[in-house]
Amino acid sequence: MAKKLWEKNTEVDSDVDRYTVGLDREMDLYIAEWDIIGSLAHIRMLEKIGLLAADELSILTKNLREIYNEVLKPGFEIEPGIEDIHSQVELMLTNRLGDTGKKIHSGRSRNDQVLVDLKLMMRAKIEEVADAVSRLFDILINQSDRYADVTIPGYTHLQVAMPSSVGMWLGSYAEGLTDDITVLSAAYNVVNRNPLGSAAGYGSSFPLDRDLTTRLMGFESVAINSVYAQMGRGKTERIVAQALGNIAATVGKLAMDACLYNSQNFGFIKLPDEFTTGSSIMPHKKNPDVFELTRAKCNKIQALPYEITLITSNLPSGYFRDLQLIKENFLPTFDTLIDILDMTGRMIGGMTVNRHTAEDPRYDLMYSVEEVNRLVKEGVPFRDAYKQVGLAIERGEFKPDKVLQHSHIGSTGNLGNDRLRERMKSQLALMDFATWHKAVDSLLGK
């Protein structure tokens, strides 16, 4: 077994190693490329403060960029016996450069290394999630426009209530995503602060230039207090997980609606055949398995903030190994959510809509409020109009007028989708992804 970075003369028990390392080798593959980005910024700063010579910086930069390309190739793995990606990268450098490779750790700890790796990774993944949300939003809002005039019943208490429309239904989820992006933007602001230089949580006696590494990595600001930088681990993931959970809640509710509306008893929409599965015994069945799994996956994502809370809730300030376990469910969640968003977009984009739902007599009573409002416009007091229509319904004499005249913003006749497009555009613009892309490209010599 290879020696740990921290190991002295006592050999680590193999069972203890297995138990403590856990899934860290697999999980660290999510942050491998970002560990190298952090190291490229760190060595630039070390050269500036005199802890590296210019020629050492040059050779370290060259080799770290080469390792970065190796890390991105399929099949890259952390070698057996190596604890984590930080140790793996340092080992690769040391094997190539000898003592020069050992100098990159001056002024930092694996504690602030993993902090910066996670923040760099979260920052990039938040951009991917935002892009996926934007794609789904566009599909929802375009379908909302397309089916703006297709009337379906709206429900309260699962009882037929008032006229709605397919356009109104889809537009409601589009607007929900604008709120979710607002929260994701706030989480991005928390992520976009540089913890590098906090070391093990108490800073360093080296004159580290933390503002320089902040600029080099394209962070918006520095995470100032070294103790809080460490306390931010777990808290930052929880904030991001909550933002991801909000998106999942929106999509999970949409999935539930779609399962209902696709069923024979509703029949408002028909999901694409390729997104349904059959029964092993009933030849007529077309089960909405994709949306059912979407619903369950969204529920799992919504549980993630609570899992993180339980891992971190009884920890005092400082670093503790408990935090390692957050990675296992947190890091894969970004890709899971992106897959959910894209799959949902494909289903909503490919569904067909029943344009004749409102013609079914079972939905005639949803027009009762329309009749009350018509009488009010003619001068009948509202309570009298309400009673008059109610008695007609009881006698079986109610005859609906199915011509809708809703004109206010957000109603079936005036969905306000252009306003929603502007809102989504403005919220997405709050997240400055271009700055960090430029900074990272510069570190990589692009």
Explain this structure:
This protein is mainly alpha-helical. It folds into three domains: 92 residues, Fumarase C, Chain B, domain 1, CATH 1.10.275; 270 residues, Fumarase C, Chain A, domain 2, CATH 1.20.200.10; 56 residues, no CATH class. It has 15 helices and six strands. Helix 7 packs parallel to helix 14.
CATH architecture of the largest domain: Up-down Bundle
Overall domain count: 3
Number of helical segments? 15
Helical content (DSSP H or I, runs of 4+): 55-70%
β-strand amount: under 5%
| N/C terminus separation | 38 Å
Could you spell the SSE succession in H and E letters?
HHHHHHEEHEHEHEHHEHHHH
Number of strands: 6
* Mean pLDDT rating: 93
- Oligomerization category of the chains in this entry: single chain
Order the strands across the largest sheet as they lie in space: 1-2
Tell me the CATH topology of the largest domain: Fumarase C, Chain A, domain 2
* Structural class determined from secondary elements: mainly alpha
Shape, please? Answer: elongated
Instruction: Report the CATH superfamily of the largest domain.
Output: Fumarase/aspartase (Central domain)
Please write the CATH class name of the largest domain.
Answer: Mainly Alpha
The major beta sheet can be summarized as:
2 strands, antiparallel
Radius of gyration: 28 Å
The low-pLDDT segments are none
